[in-house]
Amino acid sequence: MNVMRPIKSVDDLVKAGLVEAAEHQSLDDVAARYAIALTPAVARLIDHSDPADPIARQFVPNAAELFVTADERADPIGDHAHSPVEGIVHRYPDRVLLKAVHVCPVYCRFCFRREMVGPQGLGTLDPVALSGAFDYIREHGEIWEVILTGGDPLILSPRRLSEILGELATIEHVKIVRFHTRVPVVDPQKIDADLIGALKASGKTIYVALHANHPRELTTEARAACARLVDSGIVMVSQSVLLRGVNDDPDVLAELMRAFVETRVKPYYLHHPDLAPGTSHFRLSIEEGQKIVSSLRGRISGLCQPTYILDIPGGHGKAVIGEGAVRATGDGCYSISDYRGSEHSYPPAD
Q1: Calpha distance 199→228 (Å, rounded)
Q2: Residue 19 CA to its chain's centroid (Å)
């Protein structure tokens, strides 16, 4: 089916043939708690003949979301513990998150901020709160980088983006502005000259971190949107989440990382899924993740290697959790594991 309008309700999902009418009641219960949205670009990617389609799994609600485990939490990475003023998260000394908007063009079913985003979420910062956020950044000279997230900041109009970046342009100690977004993949036509002009108007160095989890998301249109950004001088990096049933396969993950590099997007973070409510069906163990990530060594170019990380619950920050290749054996010697899993002495015994 050629979907022409955004899908924002269970009724829309049924009409688009993405769920069965018999699922309506259980999915209404999901929709009452967590927002639903698919853009036409995403809906067209879904393979209706595949009940395990990895695109549908990311965006189409599932009754499994109603099951909440004891270790899941509304704020799994501890944003609130590091929020000195509304809209700011200051977890690390030299950088802050600026959450100007809590709305997205699509809602991922595994989102770690799913309790905060969407029409029923925290909304957009009002002018007073936004001014307070800028004041905080201005008063803290250690802040070198501002990361716009939320919500998806590129859902904002070029005018609103220009206003935000214009304010940041007046703060001399801020050198880098980074945007976390799915827009180039889920609504590629939005990446136009007006939006790019707004991003570049501040004179700051701009980075765009693109979130995609499956190689099929990097369509011809998505790659063209990324090309428009990169050709304008904006640097792009990737963010992905290791998800059961989506990319928990070494071949799929390798294809995704190669697709990023082909698109001139440098692989950056591969996130272990967070303990967000109703997301246990997406999670795999750290040991399973380490095995998959380790299999990328030697399989694909060094350009394609992401850093496998976990956001430690409670607001303690990120930890690199890739399987270690080095093991101390004593007397200044080490055992080094190669990409095939074979171990070698360093310095060599011979």
Answers
A1: 12
A2: 25
Could you report how far apart the first and last alpha carbons of the chain are, in Å? 65
The structure's pTM equals 0.92
Q: In degrees, to the nearest 5, what angle opens at C-alpha 180 toward C-alphas 179 and 181? A: 110
d(CA 83, CA 86): 7
Tokens representing residue 153 in the block: 């900041």
The helix (H) or strand (E) run that includes residue 131 is helix 127-139
Tens digits of per-residue pLDDT, 229-251?
999 999 999 999 999 999 999 99
Tokens of 106: 């699509």
Question: Which of the residues are catalytic?
Answer: 91-92, 95, 104, 108, 111, 113, 274, 311, 318
In this structure, the chain runs to a length of: 350
Q: What is the C-alpha separation between 98 and 136, in angstroms, rounded?
A: 11
With a CB cutoff of 8 Å and minimum separation 6, the contacts of 252 are 54, 214, 215, 246
pLDDT digits (tens, 9 = 90+) for 13-41: 999 999 999 998 899 999 999 999 999 99
> Contact at 8 Å (CB) between 129 and 159?
no
Pairing of strands 333-337, 343-346: antiparallel
